[in-house]
Each structure stands twice: as C-alpha cells, then as structure tokens.
TrEMBL record:
Annotated WD repeat ranges: 45-72
Keyword Repeat: yes
Protein name (database record): WD repeat-containing protein 49
Organism: Camelus dromedarius
SUPFAM superfamilies hit by this protein: WD40 repeat-like
Keywords from the UniProt entry: Repeat, WD repeat
Pfam families linked to this entry: WD40
Length: 169
C-alpha cells in the first residue's frame, strides 16, 4: 500500500499502491469491496482526492496526469498536468469552482470543472506565477479565498520550510 485516504462521509477507506491499483475498503469491517487496476498504466499513483459531492475520485500520478473516476471504476476525464512531460503530482485540492494541483514542477496547475466537456482536459493559466524554488509538497485552502502552499528549502538552513499565501479572488 502506497497511499491511504479515509472518507468518513462515504464510510470507506480508499488505498492505492505503486502498481496503480485503487482499492475500496469498508470502514466498519475492513472488507475490500472493490478494486480498480491499471488506473494509470505502469505509473505510480502519488495522490488521491474526492470531489465535494464524494461521487468522483481523482487520482494523480507520476505520469503527469490526473484521472477523474466515478466510484464504479469508469474514467470520465484525464487532466494533463505535465504539459512539458511527466510531473510527479503531490497534491490535488478540490475547491468549489477549481481543482488546484501541485507537484514537482514548482507551479500550481488550475483546472475548472465547468470546462470538463471533453475526455482530455488541458489546464488553465495560473496567474500567481512560480513562487517556489523547489517542489511544492503541500497545499491547504482556507475559505473564502486563502491558499497556502509549502516546500522544502534545500539545502537546509534557518528557513528550511517555506510557505506562500495566495488570495484566490
């Protein structure tokens, strides 16, 4: 098992492994109830998230894509994060009107669900520019409009953790 997320509302634990398999487990009994294999081909799943309605699972991968699945295993969309090649995706942040993606390219990638009218979806432009000097490892959103992202400042010095605050207006 590589990644584990607990979703209390749907009473499931969802796990993924380096073999690109997603498994669903009942939170009460620990019983595996379904499994999707080969979700990203040979690429490793690096992160997962559920949409706000908890009806779609988003899986991010080392191949630079995010796939949007229903809970029956049907892939509705492939989001192309790594336009210049593979990008190891570290975090998917699902907001009301946008999906923000961070990873190993120092940038924040933006997708707008209202534009998901085709299977392959290209990102929109992030207007915040590149603020980080290294890989973005974490992100959090504080409503109504504050985004915080963080990275490791290598080599280690007095300021080895860096955080940036953005206003999403």
């Amino acid at each position: 098992m590589h990644r584990l997320d607990i979703f209390i509302e749907i009473k499931m634990v969802i796990s993924s492994d380096v073999g690109s398999t997603v498994s669903f487990w009942m939170i009460d009994t620990g019983q595996k109830i379904k499994q999707f294999t080969g979700c990203h081909g040979n690429a490793e799943i690096s992160t997962m998230a559920l949409d706000a309605n908890e009806t779609r699972l988003l899986t991010g991968s080392t191949d630079g894509t995010i796939k949007v699945w229903d809970l029956n295993g049907y892939c509705h969309h492939t989001l192309n994060v790594g336009q210049e090649g593979a990008v190891d995706i570290s975090h998917i942040l699902v907001l009301k009107k946008a999906i923000l993606v961070t990873g190993w390219d120092r940038a924040i990638t933006v997708f707008r669900p209202q534009n998901f009218n085709q299977f392959f979806v290209q990102p929109e432009e992030w207007k915040g520019g590149i603020q980080h000097r290294d890989d973005i490892l974490c992100a959090a959103f504080l409503p109504p409009q504050t985004l915080v992202t963080g990275y490791l400042n290598l080599p280690f010095d007095d300021q080895w953790r860096k955080f940036f605050f953005f206003s999403l207006t």
